[in-house]
Structures are given as structure tokens and as C-alpha cells.
């Protein structure tokens, strides 16, 4: 009976996922996906528009992936690429630069997306021929200076804009223990982090004095400036003094019952001339930010663990209001427990606070260099 049950599970897996996307590559305006099985998959290509510009969405039903996302740097055709597992398949989001069109070439074992832009110079690329889906040309709008782009954007330093948010403040003391208040330590470390990051990036502080800011105000400070990253600095507390360790959070939500249906409704109605719904845009931003935030959270945690004698409590996701309100990738750092003397004693003097700030800043630098 057990053998029959296992066989049924294997058959179900075969039905649900008939293909594996084994490799992804992008160079010279050509995105190539290589499939493990020697089959030709069905591809739906939809070009829509968000508030930040055009986006091409490829839907690959019954396909799972084992390849990492390709990285896009200083590309004349694309701002970024993001691959998301959704239901029993994949969605690949190509965020297009102004004027970029596309052609999809679909054949056995491989599919390609070739991008072209009259405003860019690209090298010729050879590809296999096969079923062809051609994107319709549309005149892209000229972006005005006040256009909000939630993907990494250059500021006057030519780098990124980062919001540093020292937790609590004013009448909200946060965690209290061993003669220390979370709001004081978070502010001291947050200011040092802002100065350290200010060497390379444009930094916005949510507070620099002992004042109270609401959970809605804090992320909005970054949103109105189109920040590229939001970092909230905290210390933890426990029911007893034995609780200890460092952990870093990123935002994640639990999908509502009608979540997939609402996204599918958009995909069934959008075309190259229809603007994306607010819901679909938020869905794309959420999934992209979640991927970036979780990777950054791990980098920051590793940096702190390498510099301090603290317990590894891991990277976690939670529905924090201060993270939920940010339009950019965002993390919340719990440096240690105020209620644990061994933890808090590592973050109370200027020298150790400078070390903590540098460990976090160096992790952020490594993250942006990937």
C-alpha cells in the first residue's frame, strides 16, 4: 500500500511540474532559458505598464526552476529581472527601459527573449528558431523628474538612498533591562550606522533625537524620497534573562484567500495598452522586495555574527507594520536582548557600537555589489 501511495505522489509531481528551468543567462540583450527536459513549453507573453514604466511578464505553466536569477547591471534594455514561483509554474518579470521592445523565440530545450531598443546599441546574438511571439510596439512615455521608481536609483552621489530607522523613541522606550532602554541604544547605533553608510550612500534618518515617530511615519519618510533600502535598528527583550541572540527580519504577508484569483484576473485582462492594476503592481513590488530583503537580511546577520559573540537566531519573516509600509526592500535588525546582560553589554559603549554599525554597513555594501 505504501509503495502505491509513493508511486501516486510521483505521478502527481510529474503532472504538476513537467519541466525544470535549469539555467538562465542574460547577455547583450538576449535572455536565454535552458530546460532540463527536451520539450517545448508553452509561454504566455504579456506586456503591461506600471507606474514606473513598462514590464514584460512571461508565464511558464507547469515549470519549476533550479537556476538562480540573472543579475542586470548597467543594461541598455532592462532595469531588472525577477523570477517568481507562482502556483504550478513560473512568472518572469522583465522591467524594461523606455523604448525597449521584445521578441520571444521558443524551441525545444530552450527559449529566448531578444530585446531591442532604437536608443541603445546592442551586439548581434544568434538564437535557435522556433515558434515566435512578437511584442507590439508602443510609444513609451517620457519620465518626468518626479516619476517614482522603486528599483535602485542613482542620487547625487551616484549610488543609493538608504533610510536608517532607530526604533522607538520619545514616550516609547521599547525594551528595558539591565539599566538600559532600547530607544537609547537604537538611536546611538542608528546614528553611527547613518554616518558609516554616509561615506558611500545618501542616508535619511527617521530620527536623530529622542522623539516619537509612528510606525506609519517611519517608512513614509523613505517612500517620499524614493529610497532604495529601509533599515530599522532594534534590540530585543525576553520573558526571562536567558533569552539571547541576534536575528534579522524581512516583511512577508499571508496571502488572502482571493489573492491568486485577483492576480490571475489582471493577467487575463491586461495587454500592452492597459495599465496594470494597483493590486498587480503591489504584488510585483512585494515579491521582488521580499527576495531582495531576505538576501540582505542574511548578509547583515552573517556580518554581525562574525563580529560579536551572540547566538544565531536566524533570518525570519514577519508582518511588521514598519516593514509593510516601505515601498523599498526593508529589514528590521534585532541586535540582541536588552534583558540579557551578555547580549546588551556588547552594544553599550562607543567602540562596540561603531563595530556594529560597520558590520551592518559592510554587509549592505557587499549586498549592493553583488
Description:
The chain is α/β, with parallel strands linked by helices. It folds into two domains: 15-134, Immunoglobulin-like, CATH 2.60.40; 161-369, Zn-dependent exopeptidases (Aminopeptidase). Helix content is 28%, strand content 30%. It is built from eight helices and 18 strands. It has helices at residues 2-16, 182-197, 217-223, 259-269, 278-305, 321-324, 341-344, 350-369; strands spanning 19-27, 30-35, 44-50, 53-61, 63-65, 78-86, 89-96, 101-107, 110-116, 131-134, 161-166, 176-177, 180-181, 202-205, 229-236, 246-251, 312-318, 330-337. The strands form four sheets. A six-stranded mixed β-sheet has the order 5-1-2-9-8-10, with no helix packed on it.
Can you lay out the helices and strands and say which pair or pack?
Layout: H1 2-16, E1 19-27, E2 30-35, E3 44-50, E4 53-61, E5 63-65, E6 78-86, E7 89-96, E8 101-107, E9 110-116, E10 131-134, E11 161-166, E12 176-177, E13 180-181, H2 182-197, E14 202-205, H3 217-223, E15 229-236, E16 246-251, H4 259-269, H5 278-305, E17 312-318, H6 321-324, E18 330-337, H7 341-344, H8 350-369
Parallel strand pairs: 1-5, 11-14, 11-15, 15-18, 16-17
Antiparallel strand pairs: 1-2, 2-9, 3-4, 4-7, 6-7, 8-9, 8-10, 12-13, 16-18
Helix pairs in contact: 2-8, 5-8
Amino acid at each position: 500500500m505504501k509503495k502505491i501511495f509513493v508511486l501516486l505522489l510521483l505521478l502527481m509531481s510529474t503532472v504538476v511540474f513537467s519541466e525544470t528551468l535549469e539555467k538562465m543567462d542574460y547577455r547583450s540583450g538576449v535572455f536565454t532559458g535552458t530546460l532540463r527536459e527536451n520539450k517545448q513549453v508553452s509561454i504566455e507573453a504579456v506586456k503591461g505598464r506600471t507606474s514606473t514604466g513598462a514590464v514584460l511578464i512571461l508565464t511558464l505553466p507547469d515549470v519549476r526552476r533550479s537556476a538562480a536569477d540573472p543579475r542586470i547591471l548597467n543594461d541598455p534594455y532592462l532595469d531588472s529581472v525577477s523570477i517568481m514561483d507562482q502556483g504550478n509554474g513560473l512568472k518572469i518579470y522583465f522591467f524594461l527601459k523606455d523604448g525597449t521592445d521584445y521578441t520571444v523565440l521558443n524551441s525545444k530545450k530552450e527559449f529566448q527573449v531578444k530585446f531591442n531598443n532604437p536608443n541603445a546599441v546592442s551586439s548581434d546574438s544568434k538564437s535557435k528558431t522556433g515558434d515566435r511571439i512578437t511584442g507590439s510596439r508602443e510609444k513609451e512615455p517620457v519620465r518626468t523628474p518626479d516619476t517614482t521608481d522603486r528599483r535602485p536609483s542613482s542620487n547625487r552621489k551616484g549610488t543609493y538612498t538608504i533610510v536608517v530607522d532607530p526604533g522607538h523613541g520619545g514616550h516609547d522606550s521599547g525594551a528595558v533591562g539591565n539599566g538600559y532602554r532600547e530607544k537609547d541604544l537604537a538611536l546611538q547605533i542608528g546614528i553611527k550606522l547613518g554616518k558609516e553608510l554616509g561615506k558611500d550612500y545618501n542616508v535619511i534618518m527617521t530620527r536623530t533625537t529622542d522623539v516619537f515617530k509612528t510606525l506609519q511615519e517611519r517608512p513614509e519618510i523613505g517612500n517620499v524620497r524614493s529610497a532604495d533600502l529601509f533599515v530599522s535598528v532594534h534590540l530585543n527583550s525576553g520573558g526571562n534573562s536567558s533569552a539571547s541572540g541576534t536575528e534579522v527580519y524581512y516583511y512577508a504577508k499571508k496571502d488572502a484567500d482571493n489573492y491568486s484569483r485577483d492576480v490571475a484576473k489582471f493577467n487575463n485582462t491586461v495587454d500592452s495598452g492597459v495599465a496594470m492594476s494597483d493590486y498587480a503592481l503591489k504584488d510585483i513590488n512585494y515579491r521582488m522586495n521580499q527576495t531582495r530583503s531576505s538576501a540582505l537580511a542574511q548578509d547583515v546577520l552573517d556580518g554581525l555574527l562574525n563580529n560579536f559573540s551572540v547566538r544565531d537566531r536566524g533570518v525570519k519573516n514577519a508582518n511588521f507594520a514598519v516593514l509593510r509600509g516601505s515601498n523599498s526592500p526593508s529589514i528590521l535588525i534585532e541586535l540582541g536582548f536588552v534583558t540579557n546582560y551578555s547580549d546588551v553589554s556588547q552594544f553599550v559603549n562607543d567602540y562596540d557600537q561603531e563595530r556594529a554599525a560597520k558590520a551592518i554597513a559592510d554587509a549592505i555594501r557587499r549586498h549592493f555589489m553583488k
